[in-house]
């Protein structure tokens, strides 16, 4: 069985990073209008919507989450609200790890 308690947080955090901070997608996110840039920079705001999207993928694949059935609207909402919490935390850890790999000992600054 797939461990969705690991997959959901990793997917939402990876999608947040790709959509707002990754160097490989800079050509896309650097051209966002101001309102979209503010939304895409908010890890909790975007995390909720990404959590809903990933949970809908889980709905289609019938992936349970924390013993909740995969095809239940409550599961979709719980993943969405959980993503509001874990996406900013994991994104910060990701940026701290990248900063450490670059040899910089200072913690990364807060997001935009």
How much of the sequence lies in strands comes to under 5%
- The arrangement of helices and strands along the chain is HHHHH
Which spans have pLDDT < 50 for at least 5 consecutive residues? none
| Extended strand count | 0
Question: What would you report as the Rg, rounded to the nearest angstrom?
Answer: 15 Å
Percent helix, as a range, is 55-70%
Shape: globular
> How many domains comprise the coordinates?
1
Gap between N and C termini: 38 Å
Largest sheet: none
Tally of alpha and pi helices: 5
**Average of per-residue pLDDT values:** 88
Q: Quickly give the structural class.
A: mainly alpha
Task: Explain the overall architecture.
The chain is an all-alpha fold and 112 residues long. The chain has one domain. It has helices at 4-20, 26-29, 34-41, 43-61, 73-101.
Please provide a brief summary of the model.
The chain is mainly alpha-helical and 112 residues long.
What's the arrangement of secondary structure elements?
Blueprint: H1 4-20, H2 26-29, H3 34-41, H4 43-61, H5 73-101
Helix pairs in contact: 1-4, 1-5, 4-5
Keywords:
69% helix, 112 residues, mainly alpha
């Amino acid at each position: 069985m797939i461990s969705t308690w690991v997959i959901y947080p990793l997917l939402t955090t990876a999608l947040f990073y790709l959509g707002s901070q990754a160097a490989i997608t800079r050509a896309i996110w650097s051209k966002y209008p101001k309102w979209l840039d503010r939304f895409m920079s908010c890890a909790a705001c975007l995390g909720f919507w990404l959590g809903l999207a990933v949970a809908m993928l889980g709905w289609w694949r019938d992936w349970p989450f924390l013993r909740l059935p995969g095809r239940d609207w409550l599961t979709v909402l719980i993943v969405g609200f959980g993503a509001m919490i874990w996406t900013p935390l994991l994104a910060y850890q990701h940026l701290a790890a990248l900063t450490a790999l670059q040899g910089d000992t200072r913690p990364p600054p807060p997001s935009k």
